[in-house]
Amino acid sequence: MSNPSPAAVATPLTQAPALRSITFERGDLELSTGLLDYVIRNDVHTWIRRGGGLVGFGEVARFTTSGPGRFAEGQQWWREVIAAADVVDPLARPGTGLLAFGSFAFSKTSRHPSRLIVPKIIVGSRDGKSWLTYITDDDGAELSPAAAETALASFLDDVEPERKPSQEDRLAPGILTEEQWMTAVSRGVAHIRDGELSKLVLARDVVAELGSPISTAQVLRELAVRYSDCWTYSVDGLIGSTPEMLIKVEDQTARARVLAGTLDRSSAPAGEAGYADRVLAGSEKQQHEHEIAIDSLTRQLEPFTRTMTSHSEPFVLELPNVWHLASDVTAELAPDGEGRVPSSLALVEALHPTAAVCGTPTTVAGELIRELEHLERGPYAGPVGWMDAVGNGEWGIALRGAVVETPTRVRMYAGCGIVEASQPTAELAETWSKFRPMIEALGLPVPLRY
Ligand SMILES: C=C(O[C@@H]1C=C(C(=O)O)C=C[C@H]1O)C(=O)O
Q: Domains in the chain and their CATH numbers?
């Protein structure tokens, strides 16, 4: 008798809910605003880039977990949900049909709950075409386009008021003061000089204390408009706009965008053509930092692929706040004996944490992060995104973001890759350039000295 496959012997984690879903095509969205017309409630789930993507409303199922097995447990739960579901999806495109948004803790030692959330309604848009998915756990519910439109309309009744900046808004220090964080950077550099590791990513937090409650929807709209080349995410209080794609799976193809190497645009001389190319692409320190990040990603992805391509040189990615050295990687996924390619979440498990947000070697860097940062990263620098029922998904790295801890307290996170040539003051300034998208979207002034 042959051995049963691991999936067959795994014990169910929970009683998977019996979900039913229907997806249907809708008219084209308003070209100028696209999905943003739907970002009007604070509790929306979003994944938006260049006006397209997904906006989710409500919740019909949720799975939470923590620890080293968080990705594997998430995959198992999702398999059980899919097996028990009745899905009607005539469109069958990436992002249509049954779908979960997700956010995972950065650290395997974190108690912060990683989560997968299945919304009740999803408005999707891609290449100018839009669709609606309606998901229910209610046996008796009518599953029709009309019922879906009615459910969507009831969510859209509840519009969040705009927030005006208040006199009492302020930025408060996080866990470490600036001086303490710079000391941590110096210690990191010393460990690198000692040859224990080649790269370490150290992060810090600052807290926005607001005089009036946040309008999350307003912040998300601001981010999505200003940072349209980034992926604007919102999952259960984790919000931001990330320029870094950990992994995206569409059918047989996987894509990643690796960033490492940063230059603040606010300190750049005006009108000097080619400044970013010269200072960023021409810097040995930045190129070295970037090489470490791209090597770590391609090495981890390789076993899952048939072919993999990336440009031999990184390009300069221009964002409103910074320039980055960036590399795009495209891979054709290798099917297993049964013709199946790994799901997006299986690849996340293999790739996280990359050197872009942890360091190299991973284990040494992870230990030093715990020792030097004194920060509970929570979902910061962890995977955030969505996945559908056939393995497609997009998982960004939760950067340039914040956790809404209470309606008036928002904790922001930013970090930097430290290599042997790193200077603590320059790294501190770099964290401010990375806080800037969130600080500005919240309507707070950016501290002047940066
Ligand atoms: C860690 C962050 O960003 C990462 C670090 C970078 C760097 O050090 O140059 C660049 C992009 C990201 O991979 C962050 O934004 O918090």
A: 13-441 (3.60.120.10)
